[in-house]
Amino acid sequence: MPFGYVSPEQQMRDKADYARKGIARGRSVVVLQYEDGILFVAPNPSRALHKISEIYDKIGFAAVGRYNEFEALRLGGIRYADINGYTYARDDVTARGLANLYAQNLGQIFTESLKPFEVEIVVAEVGDSSDEDHIYRLTFDGSVFDEAGLVAMGGQAETVAARLKERYRDGLSLTEALEAALFALTEPGGERFPANQLEVAVLDRNRPHRKFLRLNGPRLERLLAEGAPAAEPAAKTGGENPLSAPETPGAPPTAPDGDIDTGSSG
User: Fold this and answer.
1) In this structure, what DSSP letter does residue 188 have?
2) Residue spans of alpha helices (H) in the chain
3) Helical axes 95-112 vs 67-87, angle rounded to 10°
4) Phi-psi region for residue 166, left (φ > 0), alpha (ψ -120 to 50) or beta?
5) What is the model's pLDDT at position 248?
6) Can you give the pTM of this predicted structure?
7) In the sheet that 52-56 helps form, which strands lie side by side, from edge to edge?
8) Backbone angles phi, psi at 9, to 5 degrees
């Protein structure tokens, strides 16, 4: 046996351990269904570098890990969606097709490259009803998981998922779903993330054409106030649609801090 030989099995284990450690350094991202669609929530102080994005009309993308790596995957997914939507029909672009594309790319990189991608991603598609919603989670080695209702990834994913399941049920309102996500993302006894430290978006099945909508500024602050435990009675009596308020102009991008950058896990 030549000096320095490493068996293929050991190489795969080493790559997997390397990728898992990189992903675990980032903060968790939560994706869950609510009564009108799918909600994405991620702690993210940067207003320039997103963990949550739109891929196509009714398809959203969320990721944890190395920003430059999952951004390359996101851009590849957008190109795939644009080409297929233009060549065939917009309805032919599905989360399942994107998940298969990402699985092939991630699997090939994991098998053939010395360094695997340190990423975990979710591709979600909102349907005309909750039964037609799809949430796919993909890991660094190209494995695909068809998730039912909710998923947490990155950071302390298992702990976050366990806390999320305590609050999750079918048919949550948007306010209730956001409250459940924040409960899951907040460590016991810790302070909750303020609005300017959160990245929140929805795929709203009631919106025409493009279903993706970012929630920020006063709109997000109002939702957080309605969902706070002390404000629950007031939230139940309010009749305003939380998504009906006009969006406020975005502030200029701020410099990213250590949670998400091109060289560290986010």
Assistant:
1) T
2) 8-24, 67-87, 95-112, 157-167, 174-185, 217-227, 232-237
3) 130
4) alpha
5) 44
6) 0.83
7) 52-56, 59-65, 119-125, 134-138, 144-147
8) -65, -40
